[in-house]
User: Fold this.
Amino acid sequence: MTHPPTGPSGPSASAAALLEVTGLTKHFPVRGGWRRSGVVRAVDGVDFAVRRGETLGLVGESGCGKTTTGRMLVRLLEPTGGRIVFEGRDITHAKRRGLRPLRQDLQIIFQDPYASLNPRHTVGKIVAMPLVVNGIKPPGGVKRRVQELLEIVGLNPEHYNRYPHEFSGGQRQRIGVARALALRPKLIVADEPVSALDVSIQAQIINLLRGLQRELGLAFVFIAHDLAVVRHFCQRVAVMYLGKIVEIGDRDDIYQRPAHPYTRALLSAIPDVAQPNGRALRDTEEAGGGAAGNGPAGRIRLTGDVPTPLNPPSGCRFRTRCWKAQEKCAVQEPPLADIGGRGGALVACHFPETEPLR
Amino acid sequence: MTAAVIPETPGAYTGAAPYLQVRDLSVRFATEDGVVRAVDGVSFAVERGRTLGIVGESGSGKSVTSLAILGLHDPKRTTIAGQILLGGRDIVGLDEESIRRLRGRDMAMIFQDPLSALHPYYTVGRQVAEAYRVHHPDASWREAHRRAVEMLDRVGIPQPARRANQHPHEFSGGMRQRAMIAMALVNNPELLIADEPTTALDVTVQAQILDLLADLQREFHSAIILITHDLGVVSQVADDVLVMYAGRAVEYGTAEQVLRRPQHPYTWGLLSSVPSLHGDPDADLIPIRGNPPSMIHPPPGCAFHPRCGYALLGSASTPGAAAGACEVDVPQLRQVQERGHTVACHLPEGKRVEIYRRDIAQAGVVR
Assistant:
């Protein structure tokens, strides 16, 4: 069913890879009810690599397995299969003691800044916790390091003794970032770090993370459903659909020369203020200059919803919503392959698109 | 406070009286910590066949406005002032029974989360049929059921007769939202209020639902209010746009005016802080500094001034300007040169146009 792991995928996965993931799989057993039990194939054979200081975006719709993948990377979930190699060490099944040093290098930022901070701990305690738990005594003391961290993320170091409820959503997310930075990690998994925030605050947090990435040389796995946010943060992008990576490549390839029909559909579905295909705006602009309007391929509308990962379609999983699907797609699963003309980007499609977007 | 200027409806093209007219609406809640002015002197209008997008962040008062229109607020804690004219009739202060008769028949609502808005115990068909029977007491269940299946079909649910006998949990997120739209439209309401109707949905499904709403509007010719924090969504479907901040309208006009020639610094901030698929991806986003204000103790003067990069503050650094106007006076919505476009800002219009051209349009996000 799954194609054999092809090893580090693409030329971008050079020897300097910080994190290498091959054939990563997570199946959740489903029991009970009158229906026969089965497995949810949440992640089903995923390969990618992240280099030092690189930002990889994992994008896709709900149920595509992006969050499950992220949680396996920081080992909050035990993989069913596949390998996770961090700095040359296989950490796929590392146990508690083996995980300790790993926790310092690998951190996670959660989506919900309200649920991920203990309401009964002060900010100082929350941010100090990783240091205390790992028995680290920074020069100058824990308190000084914590205040330093608060300053780095743009919070007032004097707010050390305050509680989470005294902060707004954006500020809470900053606390989460400070906590993730406490151990000077090499890689941060950020799971939808801005999607719970107001738009005016989202930009603050994205800019903060970008600054940290540049200054501290951090690598990120940035999990998001919003392709526009990912475009502003990530150098490389992997598009997931129903537990599989359908396309992976450098940002410009994914956004300017997307080859997978699903990537095209996702890009086309984003309502973009700067793109005048809105009703009112389009009308006026057509009236104004007799503009060409949208080409026939300009607007792609997928029908239906994402199928259940309990029983994914045979062959290519996207075929049930794909307008290009043919018989072959139902029979044969397309492997992730380089179709050429792009900087090593890979796509899993029997009939990839080759025309660049306008 | 002087009575707010009632802005001209941006889309008053047909000459007909707008179906919904909201005039100087204020909504106050009594809370333990004090009175919250959730909505403060907001006026707008929506004609049949047009869509008004109300944009704002959490706490801007956009949802409270819609609940007040539908009479869904808690009357014990809420004080409503101003006028809400529905088809020419003021519905502020109507008794519960009269409002109930309007709700569902003349105006209907689509909520953000269809799973909590649908009853888990009853079949989807039964719930839609019931919504029909509330306003058609003479209709038999069979007739109502037939009507429900017809509506489910109309909103694009495949095999509607079979699906009508299923429960909400058997529907996917997008299908549930379609079912809720079917329920809202079953009585052909003239006003449809959609509060973040696509926020809980995936982008590809969101696109379907937005298209569906536009199609249904063409067919039923209803007035639609779309409440959202997402400027992208607004740009796709709205004819007119009202931008709210801290309970007040700060900018109001056609989508073209507000999104292409915005004049309020908050609108600029929203537009430049949203990441786009166009423009330079390596350029930093331009966030709005600070945090949204407390609604119990909103800042004096213009509520946006502590976050505004162009506020006229009381210092010698802004010669010629009325000292600290933004800190003292609450700006009213005023007509700009272009007809139908109103902005609540103390900066002179010429200055705003200049700042927009120089600082905002250049940033590449907004064209």
